[in-house]
Amino acid sequence: MKTMTCKQLGGPCDHQHREQTADQAIKAQDRHLKEMVAAGDTAHEPALTEMKGRWKHPISGMGWYRAAKRDFAALPQD
Ligand SMILES: [Zn+2]
Prior knowledge:
By secondary structure, the chain is mainly α. The protein is 59% helix and 10% strand.
């Protein structure tokens, strides 16, 4: 397991995701952003908008995914 924070994935807070793979961490972040915004948190709105933009534009969003995967790979195992 590795720990990646909301901030490391482009969000505004220090919420921690503990996941096995970068894809899982990205999905957990997507879920976290949706949950926070649904709960009325406005600080997470820009990050959620960016995340939605990446789903819509997978080619231009690819750079972000690669960076997130590289960051995840560089993290120490918990
Ligand atoms: Zn957060």
